[in-house]
Amino acid sequence: MFKAMFTSHAIAAVLLTQSAMADTSIRLGGSDNASRTVIQVKDHMARMAQAGQPGYVLFDRARHVAIYVDPVKQEYREIDQQQLDKYAEVIAMLRQQMELLSAQMQNLPAAQRAFIEQQMDIPAGGLPDLEVLSTEARGYHEVAGFKCQLQILFKDQQPIGEVCLATAADAGMSGNDFATLMAMMNFMRELASTTQKLVGELGENSRLLLSGLQGVPVAMKDYQNQKEYRVTEVSSKAIDAAVFSSYLSHNKQDLLLDMPMR
Predict the structure, then answer these.
(1) Kind of pairing, strands 133-143 and 146-155?
(2) pLDDT in tens, 157-184
(3) What is the distance between the alpha carbons of residues 108 and 102, in angstroms, rounded to a whole number?
(4) Helix 175-199 vs helix 81-104: angle between axes, to the nearest 10 degrees?
(5) Of the given ranges (12-16, 155-159, 227-231, 249-253), which has the lowest mean pLDDT?
(6) Does 261 map to a domain?
């Protein structure tokens, strides 16, 4: 659940408002015509949803809590900093145990090792190495009317993607909105970093999170998968507060952390 959410919405995690006092709705489009995301901001709340998926994610800056909502089942789950820290501890322990087990299996016959890896859901050849990313600034551009600085993402010194980032001032963001969305970005960065320790390889949006880049991403390109994302529409119309609070009528469930091995 978490990996799907943060990889689907990471590019929308910090975007823009055009008025210091107005609510904001931002639409983003992808080159595959399926990756359409809407982010809405009101006061200390942010809401993000992807086209074709009934579920959505909220972030409450006042409580520093991410909320995953399933309106079909009428359920929601919350994760706060304490739970995220506990998740990180569990992941670190699992990775250490799996690395030890993988090392112990190296002297086993190939067929026996493959059987154990399958039964234990351990990737063939052991856990993947963690990705190490670097970035390089490449001048300024204009996207959807916003001035932004192009940043190239590198993995093993090979370019794998790019993102064009606007500063808060260039994007016309209010201080409050910027603080809300940056708080969400930082929270998702911690979650992405923790999950990476188990799954190793990252999606393009998670790479943006872990790159550590600060700013307002108005466009992004993934070289490996030939995908592009960019802001397509920004609205400052007032948003009904119920958009951010209707989940409270649903049933709160215990947090279930998906920890995929592959």
Answers:
(1) antiparallel
(2) 889 889 888 876 676 667 777 778 778 8
(3) 10
(4) 20
(5) 12-16
(6) no
- Alpha carbon separation from 210 to 29, 109, 221 (Å, rounded): 22, 38, 16
Residue in the block written with tokens 């910027």: 178
Which domain does 65 fall in, by range?
A: 2-246
CA distances from 45 to 180, 218, 244 (A): 7, 20, 7
Pair of tokens at residue 225: 């998968």
User: Would you list the DSSP string of 138-170?
Assistant: EEEEEETTEEEEEEEEEETTEEEEEEEEE-HHH
Would 252 be classed as within a structural domain? no
Answer positive or negative: Cα dihedral of 245, 251, 254, 256: negative
Count the helix, strand and coil residues of the chain and give each as a percent rounded to the nearest 5.
35, 30, 30
31-41 tens-digit pLDDT: 766 568 888 88
d(CA 234, CA 17): 8
Strand ranges, E, within 81-210: 133-143, 146-155, 158-166
pTM: 0.71
- The radius of gyration computed from the CA coordinates of the chain, to the nearest angstrom, equals 20
User: Residue 150 — φ and ψ, nearest 5°?
Assistant: -80, 130
Count of the separate structural domains present in the chain: 1
| 3-class DSSP state of 95 | helix
**Residue 39: exposed, middle, or buried by beta-carbon count in 10 A (0-12, 13-18, 19+)?**
buried
In-domain check, residue 257:
no
- Amino acid letter, 148: C
Q: Is residue 27 part of a domain?
A: yes
Half-sphere exposure of 57 (CA within 13 A, CB side): 24
